[in-house]
Write a structure and sequence with these properties.
The protein has about 130 residues and is mainly alpha-helical. The protein contains 4 helices and 4 strands. The chain has 2 domains: about 80 residues; about 55 residues. A hairpin with a 5-residue loop joins strand 3 and strand 4. Helix 1 packs antiparallel against helix 2.
């Protein structure tokens, strides 16, 4: 496939993801004071679809799309890291997401609700996983 075709694929994918993100922002409930970021997006729905929940799933879906494009455009061979198992980019993404979930749960147990510190730890953990695992 030519380079210009990949550029078109990247632009269409990025534009589609940007449009979906804008739709999520537009679907966020509004009050007299402005946007209610934590209000239910579907009142009376069976799941608590707030903007942070929708954004979480949007980020996971975007990562899966990105890694699929990377696997098609730049195929890789599995490598052995410090765990002594062969891993690909997708494996390392799964390991980092799973570990990040446990980091966030531990943070909530020991420190409570604001998860900004846990987010920083998760980013450091993910960088280490992608570098050494």
């Amino acid at each position: 496939m030519t380079s210009s075709r990949w550029t078109l694929i990247y632009l269409v994918t990025g534009g589609t993801l940007a449009a979906i993100l804008m739709a999520l922002i537009m679907a966020t409930p509004r009050t007299e004071d402005g946007i209610d970021w934590f209000g239910p997006m579907i009142p009376g729905g069976w799941m608590a679809w707030t903007f942070p929940v929708a954004l979480f799933f949007f980020v996971i879906a975007s990562l899966l799309i990105l890694f699929t494009l990377l696997a098609i455009r730049f195929p890789e061979t599995p490598r052995r890291g410090i765990l002594r198992i062969e891993t690909t980019r997708g494996d390392r993404l799964f390991i980092s997401l799973l570990g990040s979930a446990f980091i966030c749960l531990g943070w909530l147990f020991f420190f409570g609700a604001p998860l900004w510190g846990a987010l920083i730890l998760c980013l450091i953990y993910a960088a280490a996983v992608f570098r050494w695992v």
